[in-house]
Each structure stands twice: as structure tokens, then as C-alpha cells.
Amino acid sequence: MPLSDTGLRNLKPSDRPYKRFDGGGLFVQVNPSGSKIWHLKYRHLGKEKLISFGPYPVVGLRDARDKRDQAKRQLLEGLDPSAERKLARLKDERDQRVAFGGIAAEYLSKLRSEGRAAQTMKKQEWLVSFTEPELSNRPIATIEAPDILSVLRRIEAKGNYETARRLRSTIGAVFRYAIATGRTRYDPTEALKGALIQPQVSPRAALVNREEIGKLLLKIESFKGQATTKHALMLLAMLAPRPGELRFSIWSEFDLEEAIWRIPAERMKMRRPHRVPLPRQALWHLSELQRLTGNGDFLFPSVRSWKKPQSENTWNVALRRLGYTSRQMTAHGFRATFSTIANESGLWHADAIERALAHVEGNDVRRAYVRGEHWEERVRMAQWWADELDRYEEAAKTH
């Protein structure tokens, strides 16, 4: 007697598995756990075989019958349904290995294995998501420059020119990985150079006028918000780190006796460990900060949970509250402030300034020779810069 949906729903589990047949070899097996699994019993080349169609109700009665009928048609053609399913699965796996989406996933996995920062991986995954669905399921060797340009034009149409430019670069990296692994012969993104709209490059907002820097420091000192935020802004000004490096900093990285902040490689943009000399003024702020957050891991924990750092917008919002627009000053702008004035002073070697900013020399030959940290010079420069900031602040008080 054929099965019905009502009958299927009412089938109860027993101590042992049992079967209920629908016809044509199709049956549902009810297991003691309560699961109901579709199976088809058939014969091929004189041998009895069994193939599973999946669980009920995920695979409904009509779907199970359709699968049975398809299997019967294959048997009429002399094919083994079970073998055909395996072949289809292998084809899907093979297609995935040569599809852009599968290769992109391999490339991202490679980056993770190389220890790329979590934020970097998040951005790369976000960029790759723009290739769906147009490119992800296509064999990579069939993708041409116009196909990629179509995806990039869609992003440009929204005014996201920088995103389109970065996506072209990421797609190119996936193609180069595919070339290296023998799944395509050339990188079509090379043909797109000059085809995209060039985004307007604007320098990061930063104060470089000494009088204005002094006024900013005075405003920070009188900040009425969280005390930790005030200390953060002063440390950004003195140490010129990337905001993320300071925001994620933990107390175990700081040696206040030796006056050194040691940042591990995994938290650095260039994936190299970095040491920061701490001037007297920074040590004072750190000691004050330690009274507030020293019982936890993070120097700047979130107000919601001490297990997480402050939001990335906290410090920029504080600058807005102090009266500075995003075109005047940002948390990242303190680096440009330090770099500009340190270079203009003529007191310090350019390489020492670059090392203080944790920049990596772009020229391979030059990098091979410039290996030192310029540590002693950087210690002197760090104290000079903190003293300079004190002078700017004192001068601002008299105006």
C-alpha cells in the first residue's frame, strides 16, 4: 500500500529499526532514534543494491518518488544509480577545484596559514564575497577580463571606487594562485589596469601646526568623558602607534621598569614584532591607567565587557566631541603629526622615524641593508617628542 504524508508523520519509533514500503523498491526506514530515512532497493547486473535519498521530512514523499523514478530511468539505460551518484559527486568536487570560488577559498586558507591578521582576513573575505554569484561557480580558466570588469563596474556604480580597485587586486591574487597550482594560464586582471575609475586620494586628517597641536592637547586634558579615553588620546599623541595596535594592547606587553612596549608580530600590520620606547610622560599615563584597568588584560576594555577592547570608533568620536571634524583630525592622524614634525626638525635619521612608525622599507635591496631598529636614537627621539608636546601645550595656555 503506498505511503501518505499523514501516515509518514504518524510513524513512531520502536526498539528496532523497521521499514514501510511505498512501491517500486522505495521504502522509509524508521530508526529507534525517531529518524526516518528514505531508501531504494534495486537490482543491477543481478546484484541487489541499496541507495539512500535522505531523511524525511527534509526529503518529502513527492521528492522521494521523483528520485526513485529517476533511478529507474537510469536502470533502463543500463546505468547503476549508486555509481552515477558517486560520479556526479566527484564531478562536483572536480568542478569546485577549478571554479573561481573554490580556488579563492584555497587562497584565503593559505593566507590564514601564513598568520595574516584577523582584520586582514575579514577584509579579504568581504572582497571575495563581491564575486558571487557571477564568478564563484565558473571554471577559472573560462573567466575573461570583461567578466571581471562587469563585477567591478557594479561596485563602481555605487561610487565605491576604492573597493573596486582593491577587489581587482584580490581577484588578481586568486588568479596568480591558480596559475601557480596549474588551473589556469594567465591573469586577466592585468588587462584591466587603467580601466577602473581612479579614486581621489586625500591625505589622512592630521594637525601639523604646533599651536593647533597645543590647543588639541589642552582639550584632551579637559576631556569630560571616560578617563581611559583621555589616556588613550594622550598615548596616541606621544607614541604615534596605529590606533588598532594601542586599542588591542594588553598589560603583559608593557614593561614599565624598562620603559618598553613590546607588540607581538601577530598584532602588527607588517607581521613583524615591534618595540616602542616609553618616555616619562607616557609612563605616567600608563601608571594612572593601570589603576583603572590593571586588573584585566586590555588597557582599554569595553564598557560592556572587560574581555573585549573599546570600539574602534571610540577615540574618533571623542575627537568629534572635542570639536574636530573627520577632515581636521583622526586617531590615525597622530602618526602623521609625529612624522611631519620629526622629519621637519632635521634632528633624526629618516630611518629611525620610519622604524618608530613600524614602516617596512619597500625596496628589497635597501631593506636587506636597513635591518637595525635604531633603538638608542628612537629612545632619545621618543623623549624629545613627548617634551615637544609638553611645550606645545604650555604655549597654548598662554594664548
UniProtKB/TrEMBL annotation:
GO molecular function, one term: DNA binding
Protein name as catalogued: Integrase arm-type DNA-binding domain-containing protein
Keywords: DNA integration, DNA recombination, DNA-binding
Organism: Kangsaoukella pontilimi
Tyr recombinase domain segment(s): 203-386
Stretches assigned to the Core-binding (CB) domain: 98-179
Family of this protein: Belongs to the 'phage' integrase family.
PROSITE patterns membership: CB, TYR_RECOMBINASE
GO biological process: DNA integration; DNA recombination
Lineage per the UniProt record: Bacteria, Pseudomonadati, Pseudomonadota, Alphaproteobacteria, Rhodobacterales
